[in-house]
């Protein structure tokens, strides 16, 4: 792995994103618009918004980054750009880390905006520190990036990349504890929930919403970080140079 090559790939991706205004709008504005819609829905019952808001600050960035990253990376491969890049002195891990760094920078701006508006303008009440809420949101977005990079190795078209969303993202949303407490899930589903990274991301956000202690939050973040590293490693091992 070469830090210089990773930085060059990250700069390239950020330059492309800067020129794609629609994608930028989706990355920066959509999480905020969705959380604002949720606030509006529960404007007559702020307690519900305070209960589910932190969890959705984990889910929205994760989902959006998964979708954008998987489609963008697949486009690089199907267009032949990835094959030309890998013909240079650069490894697959350099390519994936460059993408991860670029989207992590985007995730920071995305999360600061979403958390800032949620807490500052929409009066989302959280017991834990707001800065840690932002850190969790960033890590969750990076998790979506890592999984998006992973699934892009298996898809042949952009449509197939989108099809991975109901297979990998929606089950995690259903089992993360947002709709039913994880402790109340049937035994098999509870065990499955324990194996899914979004469950720990939502646990961290939910804990920050109701408690001031942070030890459990850091433990959950460590698990999510492990899934990020595993996703990048598997992505590097399975990434193909071009779509057959």
From TrEMBL:
Topological category with respect to the lipid bilayer: Multi-pass membrane protein
MF GO annotations: ABC-type transporter activity
Gene Ontology biological process terms in this record: response to antibiotic
Record-linked PANTHER family: MEMBRANE COMPONENT OF ABC TRANSPORTER YHHJ-RELATED (PTHR30294), TRANSPORT PERMEASE PROTEIN (PTHR30294:SF38)
Domain of life from the UniProt record: Bacteria
This protein's name: Transport permease protein
Domain ABC transmembrane type-2: 14-242
Gene Ontology cellular component list: ATP-binding cassette (ABC) transporter complex
Compartment(s) of residence: Cell membrane
Primary site of residence: membrane
A Pfam family annotated for this UniProt entry: ABC2_membrane
Family: Belongs to the ABC-2 integral membrane protein family.
């Amino acid at each position: 792995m070469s830090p210089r090559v990773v930085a060059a790939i990250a700069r390239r991706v950020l330059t492309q994103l800067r020129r794609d205004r629609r994608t930028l709008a989706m990355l920066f504005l959509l999480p905020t618009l969705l959380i604002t819609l949720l606030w509006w829905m529960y404007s007559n019952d702020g307690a519900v918004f305070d209960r589910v808001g932190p969890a959705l600050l984990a889910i929205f960035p994760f989902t959006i980054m998964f979708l954008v990253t998987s489609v963008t990376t697949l486009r690089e491969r199907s267009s032949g750009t990835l094959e030309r890049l890998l013909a240079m002195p650069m490894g697959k891990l350099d390519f994936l880390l460059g993408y991860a760094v670029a989207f992590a920078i985007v995730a920071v701006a995305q999360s600061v905006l979403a958390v800032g508006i949620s807490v500052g303008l929409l009066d989302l009440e959280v017991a834990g520190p707001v800065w840690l809420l932002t850190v969790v949101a960033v890590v969750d977005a990076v998790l979506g990036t890592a999984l998006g990079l992973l699934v892009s190795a298996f898809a042949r078209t952009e449509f197939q990349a989108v099809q991975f969303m109901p297979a990998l993202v929606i089950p995690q949303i259903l089992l993360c504890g947002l709709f039913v407490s994880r402790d109340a899930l049937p035994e098999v589903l509870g065990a499955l929930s324990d194996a899914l990274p979004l469950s720990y991301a939502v646990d961290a956000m939910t804990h920050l919403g109701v408690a001031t202690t942070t030890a459990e939050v850091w433990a959950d973040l460590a698990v999510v970080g492990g899934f990020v590293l595993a996703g990048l490693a598997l992505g590097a091992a399975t990434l193909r140079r071009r779509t057959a």
